[in-house]
Amino acid sequence: MEFDLIVKNGIIVSASDIIxxxxxxxxxGRITAIGTALKSKSPSTKTxxxxxxxxxxxxxxxxxxxxxxxxxxxxTWETGSRSAVCGGTTxxxxxxxxxxxxxxxxxxxEEYSARAEGNSYCDYGLHVILTNPTMKILxxxxxxxxxxxxxxxxxxxxxxxxxILRDREILNIMMASRKLGMTTMIHAENHDMIDLIIETLEAxxxxxxxxxxxxxxxxAEAEATYRAISLAELMDAPILLVHVSSQTAAQHIRDAQTxxxxxxxxxxxxxxxLLAERLKATEKDHFHGAQAxxxxxxxxxxxxxxxxxxxxxxxxxxxxxxxxxxxxYHVEGGKKLGLVDGKPFFRKIPNGLPGLETxxxxxxxxxxxGRISIHDFVRVACSSPAKLYxxxxxxxxxxxxxxxxxxxxxxxxxxxxxxxxxxxHHDIDYTPYEDIEFANWPRYTILRGKIVWDRDGExxxxxxxxxxxxxxxxxxLPGPRNVFVNEWRPPM
Length: 492
Known about the structure:
The chain is α/β, with parallel strands linked by helices. The protein has helices spanning about 75-85, 105-115, 135-150, 165-180, 190-205, 210-215, 220-235, 245-260, 270-275, 300-315, 360-370, 375-390; strands at about 5-15, 20-25, 30-35, 45-50, 55, 60-65, 90-95, 125-130, 155, 185, 240, 265, 315-320, 340, 345, 405-410, 415-420, 435-440, 440-445, 450-455, 460.
C-alpha cells in the first residue's frame, strides 16, 4: 500500500476503546489503514512517531463565534481558526446571525460564508441563529439551508432583548426543525427574572462586573431549561441546551434523558475551571472582572464546577464546546464598552470569553487529574459533536474517515508550564486561564492528513485556506420517538 503519512507508536483512543500497538496509514486526506507495522511503497511517505502518546480524533468545536457583531474587537476567521488548530481542534461550527430586521436568511448565509471562505485554517460548518422566525423562513428557507447549504441546526435565545423568542415562536421552530431532522440549540435563561434583577441592581448603583453574576442566578437557567425541555417534549423534538453552567439545569437534562427524551446538553471550559470571584475587581484594576463576563455567568462555588465534571463523566453532556466569543480587553470598543465615562456598567460589557485554543488542553487536564476518562474526553470533544451535528467523516479514528488527528505527549514527557496569553495564537489580548498549569498540550494536529501544528518543530505549519466548508447532514443521534404527551400531534 502507499501512504502519504504513517503515525506510529501511539495509543489510539475512541469514545469506547483503546488500541495500542497499531499504526495509522493516511492517503489523500483519509485514514486508509490501521494495522501493525504499516509500510509504504512510496519514498515520499512521512512518518510521525507518537512515542506512546495518546492519539485522539481532531477536536470538533461545535459552538464558536467568529466575526460576529456580538464579539466587537474579536477574532476573525483567520485568527480564530488559527488558534483552533494550535489547540488540537480541526473542525469548528460557527453562527450566521439573524437580526430582527432581517426577513430572509439566504443573503445572511451568503455574506457570512464569504467571510469564511478561503480564510480558515480548519474545516468548518455553520449554524443559523433565529431571531425573526417568520413562517416564510420556517417553511421555505430552512429547508433550502438544510438541503442546499448543509446547515442542519438552528440556535435560539430565551433571553436578551434583541434576540429573545416567545414560547410560541420556539414551538414553531421546533416543528419546522423536527420535519427536517435538524437540531434546535437553545440558550436557556429566564429573561424576566434577569431583567428585574438588573433593574433593581442598577437602581442601587451596583453596576460593577461582579454583579453580572448576581443578575443571572442559577434559578433563571434552571427554570428556562425545564421550560425548554417541556416545549421539546410537547413537540417530540430533539434539542441541545447550550453552555450549561449549573447543577440544577444539568439535573433537568439528566432527568429528561432517563425518560429517553432526545434532550442533549453542552458545557464549556469556563464552567469547569472558573468561579464568580473572577468577576471581582483587583487592586490594580477595578474593571478587571469584565474579562470573565459571559452568560450564563460563572457560578459561585466549586459544587457547581464539580457538577459539570460529573455531567461529563456520567453522560449528561453530549458536547463540550468553547463558546468562543471573544472581545479584546485593553482597547476601546471591546470589553471597555462596559465603561461609560469611567463608570462600569456590567449590562454593557460584551458577553463572552476566548477559549478555542485552550478547550482541549483544559479538558485533557481533567483526564490527567482523574476527573473524567480519556473516553469521556473523546466522546464530548470529538465523536458526539460530530454525530449530533451530522459530520459522519469527523470525530473518529477509523478507515474511510477524514485523517483529523490530535497527538498528545507521552505521560511525563512534556515540561509543565503555567499558561500565559502570549503563548496562544488568537488575536485577543488576554486569556481567562492565565497561570493555569498544564502538563500536556497537543503535540501535533493533523487536518485531513496534513500536519498543521508541530509544537516541537515549526509550530503552526498549516496555512490560511487549508480549511474547507462542510455541508452537514441530519443528526446521527436519536431524534423524535413519535411519543407524545396526549392524543394531540404536531403537524408532521
